[in-house]
Amino acid sequence: MAAGGSVVHPAVPSILVTPICPHVLSFRSMVFPDHVVLRCYVPDDARAPASVAFDGKHHRELQRGDSLQIQMSNYPVPTLNRGDHSSDWLESLKRSFNFNTRPRQRPL
Hints:
Blueprint: E1 14-17, E2 30-33, E3 38-41, E4 50-54, E5 58-62, E6 67-70, H1 85-97
Antiparallel strand pairs: 1-2, 3-6, 4-5
């Protein structure tokens, strides 16, 4: 959320790509169907190596000619729900981010 990524219901099988500090202003978050395989290449004539981070923890350097493949996992993360899937998710958004709520104003 801090990077401005999309909010997607957990029942929607998708891959979310959100750039962190992109070098061009036209790059935006993207949502892909779960069957898509994305490949990012470092050009052979790149001026310098590239770096990639996974969830901000695991940093790797990519050399010229290296590539990275992104695809949906065969093992999705299980979730626990108090009620039904959608109600829990919507309540969590409302509670955490004040989605669709308006604070009561004090009288003048």
